[in-house]
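Fig. S4 source data, part A: sequence.
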Amino acid sequence: TGGLGIAAIGFTMGVVRGSAQTATRMARRHLMMTLEVTSKDPAYPWMLGWLANHRVQHLTVSTKIVRGDVDGRERTEFQFSPGPGRHVVWVQGRPIMITRERSTEARDLQKGEPWETVILTTFGRDLSIFNQVLLEAQGKAMQTKMESTVVYTNWGTEWRPFGHPRRKRDLSTVILDEGLAEDILTDVSEWKQSASWYHDRGIPYRRGYLLHGPPGSGKSSFITSLAGYFDLNICVMSLNDAGLSDDRLAQALSVAPQQSIILIEDIDAAFNERSA
């Protein structure tokens, strides 16, 4: 009888455990909703930044060596973000369980980093809570981005950030011929306000300028200042690149990040006769 009793208890516990697992699956399916954000999605770094502003106990650190804009000295910055695992944050009185998963096998072939996902889970069926979280995360990321200028370089078929974002440079620090900077600022401002005119007539919405002069005359410095003034990124590519072809150039221009100045260096390399 003792053996039968133990068997009955074991059977009962098995039934209870199975019922609990079934109930959990049913609850997740009918009472809860989830949102998955992969490390390939542009919103992924936004989410990590958003989570870093909430109090969580398990953290991971990203160490950056930053060179000062004024004295050129290097300093160390530590950026904390929630580590892999589960975290709970509250948004408008609602709990959201956030799971950060890091694959030990799959890796991003382009960056060489482990494949990661962030999964948000909460009660209800109203997707507006997820939309609110994403918009809040994006808003904070854009605020940080507006304080600096991101420089991209072309890698094969894509553009990648080159180094850390640069602090915006004021236009007053660049010395050009009298009236030149003001003329370009006025022209760019008018162009930015005429997007509908271009679209209505089927004309590509872009504007080009040819800056020329000896090294050190302020061309690159002015472009950096211009990008900061209009809150634009900078995409740098050189026509002197040995692997650059017509097809690759066309592809690069077609997939360049939005709101960017495309800086094409060594433009004279496009001509057969080139002078120093």
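Fig. S4 source data, part B ends here. The first strand starts at residue 32 and ends at 38.
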